Amino acid sequence: MASFLKSNTFSTLRPHHLQGLPSQSRRQLHVEPGAREKALLAKDPALERFKSYRKGAASIRRIGDYLTIAVVAGCCYEIYVRAVTREEARKALKSE
């Protein structure tokens, strides 16, 4: 009786549009974009000069990525050094 109540309770809490289709996801089906959407997504030659297709933008982004990695690595190294020196100080105090 308890299992019947449990399954009945959960079935009432689930959304009704999902009960018949357990394999279908909650997202709606993909619909092809219409003519207006395709026109909005098409390349516009007037806007070409505002987009960063140049190699300079890509190289600046790459340099920024490398600098970010270097800063994160430096921070990790600094944390490691401080932890090691703290542990060595504790061992020195215990041995005295």
SSE arrangement:
Layout: H1 2-13, H2 16-19, H3 35-41, H4 55-95
Report on the architecture of this protein.
Helix content is 67%, strand content 0%. The protein is an all-alpha fold and 96 residues long. The longest helix is centred in the C-terminal third of the chain and has 41 residues, at 55-95. It is elongated. This is Succinate dehydrogenase subunit 7A, mitochondrial. InterPro entries: SDH7.
Shape descriptor reads elongated
Quaternary structure annotation = single chain
Q: Helicity, in percent?
A: 55-70%
Structural class computed from helices and strand pairing: mainly alpha
Radius of gyration: 30 Å
The string of secondary-structure elements, in order, is HHHH
GO cellular component, one term: respiratory chain complex II (succinate dehydrogenase)
Organism: Ambrosia artemisiifolia (Common ragweed)
Protein name: Succinate dehydrogenase subunit 7A, mitochondrial
Name the features.
single chain; 96 residues; 0% strand; SDH7; mainly alpha
In short:
The chain is mainly alpha-helical. The protein has helices at residues 2-13, 16-19, 35-41, 55-95.
